[in-house]
Amino acid sequence: MNKIIQPNSPMTIAGHTRAIATLGLPLVGGHVAQFAIGLTDTVMLGWYGVEALAAVTLASTYFFVLFLFGSGFGFAVMPMVAAAAGSGEDRQIRRCTRMGLWLSLGYGVVAMPALIFSRPILDLLGQDPVIAEMAADYLRVAGWGIFPALLVMVLKSYLAALERTQIVLWVTLGAALMNALVNYILIFGNFGAPELGVRGAAIASFSTQVVSFVAIIIYALKVLPEHALLKNFQRPDWEMLREVFRLGIPIGLTTLSEVSLFAASAMMMGWLGTVALAAHGIASSLAGLTFMVHLGLSNASTIRAGNAFGRGDREHMARGAKVVTVMSLLMSVIATVFFLATPELLMSLFMNGDDPQKPEILAVGVGLLAMAALFQLVDGLQAIALGLLRGVQDTTVPMLIGVFSYWGVGITASYVLGFVLGFGGIGVWSGLVLGLGCASVFLMLRFWGRVIGTVGVAKENADPR
């Protein structure tokens, strides 16, 4: 593995832009491809029927609440590997990756009962009984995918932190194509297969996760044999396990608080009816697709900030942080233009042209896309700020900011505006804007006002607090 060394002279803005693009574009592509797996489910089930679309919107939201909390251990591996690479500590790379895999497996065991027995929970959340049963049927199959999905998250973070982002892209692209094909066969019963509808989508998702894990672990073992990730895998490394846990739990809770804001909005839209929930599913899918660009840039910022943190190079980190923030802002502007200029065209891509409920879904969805355009800016900024803070292994305070912003501000505002003040779906999505906006302000203040000044001052202290 190539060692990352201190540059002889400060990198220019153009140099940072090229470096971030080289590292970040494959990560963006990988996130888009990963998102395309869920997006394929949404599109094909939208063609299959409105109830099926609403059910998988609900089930996917439920699954990802659990998955993204557990993925905190995978996310923790990324800055740890990046910092170790920056300071030339190869043994640390192996140790933190292994314990990330251990913690992810353990979390999967804990999460499985909530996936298998989801129906009573969905009922308690006030969902339509028909939709809840379809969603539970999906989760009884797709839920098993949480094991390979979490392991893939750790391995992707490990490879990305070593700047091997091309393989992350190609494995995820292959998974997306496989998912689309199996969906097409099993949802609709093509090529002589049985027509399984929602359950067919669940089988496709699980199969895709398994194949992704097999592909990426084979690559890691063959191309980076010096790390010997699975050799004596059964042996615990309690010191490193505690360190990954210490970083991973706050990251998981931060991610959970953010995704639960969107999950709560999906539940609230479900209270408004099947049409509102279907429109929400389409609008959130489109907003999520553009967010994948910000997430890829955020990962790139974590890796580059982690490298600079490992070297104690404050100037390099600060200039790179400014460049990646501007890149995210430009993407926000592009997405906003599309959402405001072509909302009906974008919404129609997800629906059968003959669906009798299409006019109602479009009427609701166009307004939701206008709100999505509003939160593009703040959604991107909070993602970049989180990426930078994770790069310097600052996770606890960002967790507290996230909980306050996403739950205290966002969910509360969504309920009050949507139901107490009677603004319906627009009110629910206005709460999203307020929660994300609050997070973006405080997270950026945390990085630029507090954390950046500590880099290089006490390099031996990995926690800037």
Describe the model:
The protein is mainly alpha-helical and 465 residues long. Helices cover 81% and strands 0% of the residues. The chain is built from 16 helices and no strands. α6 packs parallel to α9, α11 packs parallel to α14 and α12 runs antiparallel to α14 (358-391). The protein is globular, with a radius of gyration of 21 Å. It holds the Pfam family MatE.
Quick gist of this model?
The chain has 465 residues and is mainly alpha-helical. 81% of the residues lie in helices and 0% in strands. The radius of gyration is 21 Å and the shape is globular.
Identify the overall geometry.
globular
Broad structural category: mainly alpha
N- and C-termini, Cα separation: 31 Å
Order of helices and strands: HHHHHHHHHHHHHHHH
How many beta-strand runs? 0
What does the largest sheet look like? none
The helicity comes to: over 70%
Strand content: under 5%
- Average pLDDT, to the nearest integer? 86
Oligomer state of the chains in this structure: single chain
Low-pLDDT sequence parts: 1-8, 458-465
Number of helices: 16
Rg of Cα set: 21 Å
InterPro entries: MATE_fam (IPR002528), MATE_MdtK (IPR050222), MdtK-like (IPR048279)
Organism: Parasedimentitalea maritima
Protein name: Multidrug-efflux transporter
Main location: membrane
List the SSEs and their pairings:
Blueprint: H1 13-48, H2 50-70, H3 72-86, H4 90-116, H5 119-124, H6 129-142, H7 146-161, H8 165-188, H9 198-223, H10 238-271, H11 274-311, H12 314-341, H13 343-348, H14 358-391, H15 396-420, H16 424-451
